[in-house]
Design brief:
mainly alpha; single chain
């Protein structure tokens, strides 16, 4: 997994918050239009827009820090998910809860597949071990029979050659 730079994370943050930023800009434009239609001086409008933009910027920085920390925490959870799944953060919304349920279901399926694979591999090893043991017994018996036959043939050849 590649490490994202802070600029990548900021880009993702703005993509996630695009609707909110667009709504904010539309509201500021509506205020400008209303003030201009009533021929109110531009200074109070600019001052109000500056105040709200400053507050929005402060809240956005705070929200980005929370977003960044959650991203780092979830990457740590991802690195530890091989072992267990108990480090998931508490769901704060229904959608997050749904995602956590999906992750838990996938994790359980993965554990089941790993368990079944390990069992099948163990059974295969046991089968081949038993097969190798069972095939060795007849081969050893056949080898002993051949050796005994060779030994008896050698004795009979020796006795024919030297007893004459």
């Amino acid at each position: 997994m590649r490490k994202e730079s802070i600029f990548d994370i900021i880009t993702y943050y703005f993509k996630d918050k695009f609707k909110i930023i667009t709504k904010f800009c539309v509201f500021i434009i509506i205020f400008f239009m209303v003030y201009s239609l009533y021929h109110i001086p531009l200074e109070p409008v600019l001052y109000a827009a500056l105040l709200t933009t400053t507050l929005a910027l402060i809240f956005s920085v705070y929200d980005f820090v929370l977003y960044y920390n959650k991203h780092i925490f979830l990457n740590d959870v991802l690195n530890g998910v091989e072992v267990k799944l108990d480090r998931l953060p508490q769901a704060k919304s229904l959608i997050e809860n749904d995602y956590q349920n999906i992750v838990e279901a996938i994790y359980k399926d993965k554990c089941t597949i790993l368990y079944n694979t390990d069992n099948k591999y163990g059974e295969m090893i046991d089968y081949y071990t038993m097969w190798a043991h069972q095939i060795k017994t007849p081969i050893a018996a056949f080898s002993m029979i051949v050796q005994s036959m060779e030994g008896s043939n050698e004795k009979s050849l020796w006795s024919r050659n030297y007893l004459r």
